[in-house]
Write a structure and sequence with these properties.
single chain, 435 residues, alpha+beta, 16 helices
Length: 435
């Protein structure tokens, strides 16, 4: 009977086509608005590195001054000072650890037809690439020896590499950056995670990090940190003073072998903090925090209140569309009261009538879902045209495709409950007398 009622539903789409098209369009617009907003929310709040997110941790060591400190208050900055970063890199119990900061360098292309330009990138330690599963199109990360001596080596992202060298493999080529020669040791593959969970403090280019150089190289060349640099007390001028100060500008990550090693890492950090307090540092005596990837994204408010409000407004619009669909279905089913009366007089039960009309409503929901899916793709394309970062987030995956049809079908069935119930209440005798 389901197949029979489904065929009837398809045929009844041609009944009063203007009214049917209006219902499908209203439902499709509501579904498209809610799904496109939900798709962006899904990308921003999803796990950016499944299988590893519970083994990657950001430590927070509050090294601010005690003046004006309120225990439990939200910290001004959650980055790390250079002395702490170096101490933790030298001695830690985790499988890997990396420190990084954003910076920029001028690039003089080897081609005369391209003018010099400013590139924005990242200065991490070598463990960064293994920790965050960074793919390589050509080459590989710099060696441990390159990192130890702060060598002039660079890794380019794919866009910059193709801009400078075309389709050729540039590994081994020389590139002038900040008026010094750098050797290209690698080219990143397609890697531009959104949100940029590994560096949530500070901005960067929408296309991802344009280059990466060893952190030791960036420090040796005294490159300016691009992003947030927070100093809780006055320091002397000069780069050496920045390195020795309590200013926070380094972002730090640990990777453990398993999620169960978190407690050991926490104990290590608390012992380290105790040692530093004996040396006269960490005067606030604040608790040491350790965040995994998802907790870090929540603390940094990756999904802001504006995004959540947009999602609620989109679903409110869907509800408004459902109210209009209910009215149109009432009009559509009321016009078929005589048909229902004849079927009831011939022995059809109210249950059979209810099933038929509800399945017909489901057919309308499927049609609205198909159209809503097309409109959602169009809406995401328009959102993606605003910026490259939005283009990376405004995308639809298989999970959202399935959710689109589920939302449209459920919305149509909910909207059809009242009209279907009203249709079942038709009294056969009254309808037969009227005929």
């Amino acid at each position: 009977m389901f197949a029979y009622y489904f065929k009837l539903g398809l045929r009844n789409l041609r009944r009063n086509p203007a009214l049917t098209a209006l219902m499908v369009l209203i439902l499709a617009v509501g579904v498209a608005a809610s799904v496109s907003t939900l798709a962006i929310l899904h990308v921003m709040s999803g796990d950016p590195i499944p299988g590893k997110s519970d083994r990657l941790f950001v430590p927070f060591i509050d090294n601010g001054q005690p003046d004006g400190y309120v225990p439990g208050a939200e910290p001004v900055d959650m980055q790390m000072a250079y002395p702490d970063a170096m101490n933790l890199l030298r001695k830690h119990p985790a499988e890997r650890a990396t420190a990084m900061f954003g910076t920029g360098m001028s690039v003089e292309p080897p081609r005369s037809d391209i003018p010099a330009f400013q590139a924005y990138g990242l200065a991490p330690t070598r463990a960064f690439f293994a920790m965050f599963d960074v793919p390589f199109l050509h080459g590989q990360p710099w060696t441990a020896d390159d990192e130890a001596r702060g060598a002039n080596v660079v890794i380019l992202n794919r866009t910059v590499a193709e801009k400078l060298f075309g389709d050729a493999n540039p590994v081994g080529q020389r590139l002038i950056m900040n008026r010094e020669p750098f050797t290209v040791v690698g080219v990143l593959g397609d890697w531009n995670p959104m949100p940029r969970y590994y560096k949530l403090i500070g901005s960067g280019p929408a296309t991802g990090e344009e280059f990466m150089i060893p952190m030791a190289t960036a420090v040796r060349k005294e490159l300016t940190p691009y992003g947030s640099v927070n100093c809780s007390q006055v320091r002397d001028p000069g780069y050496a003073s920045l390195l020795a100060s309590e200013c926070t500008w380094i972002q730090f990550w640990f990777e453990t072998r398993s999620a169960f090693e978190r407690a050991d890492l926490q104990s290590f950090l608390e012992n380290y903090a105790g040692e530093q307090r004996k040396l006269g540092r960490l005067k606030r005596n604040a608790p040491i925090e350790l965040y995994d990837v998802m907790a870090w994204m929540e603390v940094r408010k990756v999904v802001g209140n504006d995004t959540k409000l947009s999602a609620w407004l989109a679903f409110g619009f869907l509800i408004l569309c459902l109210v209009n669909t209910v009215g149109l279905l009432l009009a559509k089913f009321s016009a078929r009261a005589s048909e229902v009366g004849i079927r009831r007089a011939l022995g059809a039960s109210r249950r059979a009538i209810f099933q038929q009309f509800l399945i017909e409503t489901g057919v309308i929901g499927l049609a609205g879902g198909l159209l809503g899916l097309l409109l959602a793709f169009g809406a995401l394309a328009l959102i993606g045209m605003q910026s490259r970062s939005m283009a990376a987030m405004a995308r639809m995956d298989w999970e959202m495709l399935g959710l689109t049809f589920a939302i449209s079908l459920c919305a149509a069935l909910v909207a059809g409950l009242l009209p279907t119930w009203r249709a079942c209440q038709v009294t056969p005798a009254i309808q037969l007398k009227s005929q």
